[in-house]
From TrEMBL:
This is Dihydropyrimidinase-related protein 5. One of its GO terms (molecular function) is hydrolase activity, acting on carbon-nitrogen (but not peptide) bonds, in cyclic amides. The lineage of its organism: Eukaryota, Metazoa, Chordata, Craniata, Vertebrata. Gene3D superfamilies: Metal-dependent hydrolases (3.20.20.140). One of its GO terms (cellular component) is cytosol. Belongs to the metallo-dependent hydrolases superfamily. Hydantoinase/dihydropyrimidinase family.
Length: 215
């Protein structure tokens, strides 16, 4: 593979393009071991699930790996409960240090208060918001704005999943109507421009809320 900076640009197989550095394949393992994993899709960091994958093992061996999993409450459920449930499941099985950030899947005064509670009393400093997943986790623009303002007020970092949720939902319907229900439907239902538009919109909203955000 040819890499520029941290990105894989092309898989050349057995070829060795000019002006590139050839390294033993072990190097790719070292790259994978030195990652910062912050987007686990369950409330359990990967090292809690048997068999443990290389990143947590690298952490235990003194590597730079950081395991940070997502506590994702269901819509209209308590953020604090989701956090505590994840801690209860994880603490007894943890094989290395880990952190949790928490998903904001709906909005209201209770959510704002619980975000502050998580920061002040539980040490959470990162929250995940979604502009996609309509009728599930998607926040409206006004709700995203208020959640980003809250992050600013309580000193937390906001992470935003930026896609145009309305158009993604429409694209999914169109793909299903065409009989497309496999992985190839991803590109049809959520093309790059839907992410680009939502990213620009998220940045605009964040600028208005003066929040520290990452995408």
């Amino acid at each position: 593979m040819m890499m520029r900076q941290q990105f894989i640009r092309k898989d050349y197989g057995s070829l060795s393009p000019a002006q590139t550095l050839s390294v033993d394949s072990l190097f790719s393992l070292l790259i994978n071991l030195s990652c910062f994993s912050s987007s686990a899709s369950t409330c359990l960091p990967p090292c809690f699930l048997p068999p443990p994958p290389p990143p947590p093992q690298a952490a235990l061996m003194g590597g730079t790996t950081m395991v940070m999993a997502l506590a994702l409450p269901e819509q209209h459920c308590s953020l604090v409960d989701a956090y505590e449930n994840c801690r209860a499941l994880a603490d007894a099985k943890a094989c290395c240090d880990y952190a949790l950030h928490v998903g904001v899947t709906w909005w209201g005064p209770k959510v704002r208060n619980e975000m502050e509670t998580l920061v002040r009393e539980h040490g959470v400093n990162s929250f995940q918001m979604y502009m996609a997943y309509k009728d599930s986790m998607m926040l409206r623009d006004s709700e995203l704005y208020q959640s980003l303002q809250t992050c600013k007020d309580i000193g937390a970092i906001a992470r935003v999943h930026a896609e145009n949720g309305e158009l993604v939902a429409e694209g999914a319907k169109e793909a299903l109507e065409l009989g497309i229900n496999g992985p190839e439907g991803i590109e049809i239902s959520r093309p790059e421009e839907l992410e680009s538009e939502a990213t620009h919109r998220a940045i605009t909203i964040a600028n208005r809320a003066t929040a520290r955000s990452t995408w």
